Input
Amino acid sequence: MIKGVIFDLDGVITDTAKFHYIAWNNLASKMGIELTEEFNEKLKGIPRIESLKLILEYGNAIHIYSEEEMHEMADIKNEEYKKLLKNLDKKDILPGIEDFINKLKEKNIKIGLASASKNAPMILEKLGLGKKIDYIADPDAVKNGKPAPDIFIEATRGINLNIDDVIGIEDADAGVEAMRSCNMRSIGINVDADLRLESTRELSLDIIAILDNK
Ligand code: BG6
Ligand code: MG
Output
């Protein structure tokens, strides 16, 4: 029986990918690097500093900057990203998510968050979901970011369950790979996983039951 659900945040609970893209694009264009939406797909689920390194590699500029300069650049991006989130609220919760979370709570199914985002607690508060999540795994507390499984393992530990008791929901290849490498059952939103859904609208207790019986 499934006793817990581990959510990714960006792309599953709310669509912040577009704001990450705007903020990275503005930073990159100052360095003469033009990002494409296709390249942006590769950044989904990837921690902040690693994302910057991928962008610099993409623009053949990785050798130009020191680690310290890269951290300053990542901070500049994050400040802009936070400004773009200024008006984020309940209306930005992806379709079906709040209802699904409420149904999980009614069934006493625990909810964990496994997001690479250090902004996750603030974003959940803005969305009015802060109190509904039982445990938010801190990306700074784990050694390796996605596609390593560490954050999913930490989120599961935080809700006092074992990997076999939970399923995870992701929208990014890096996140599905993370779940696969710790044998967590997975639902993919528009991405291949143990079960692939086209939209968050399709999430339900019945869908979870399908995975439970697999
Ligand atoms: C993930 C996003 O959820 O969080 C990535 O998909 C992002 O695009 C990562 O880089 C880190 O987020 P933040 O908010 O700490 O910069
Ligand atoms: Mg995501």
Notes: The mean pLDDT is 96.
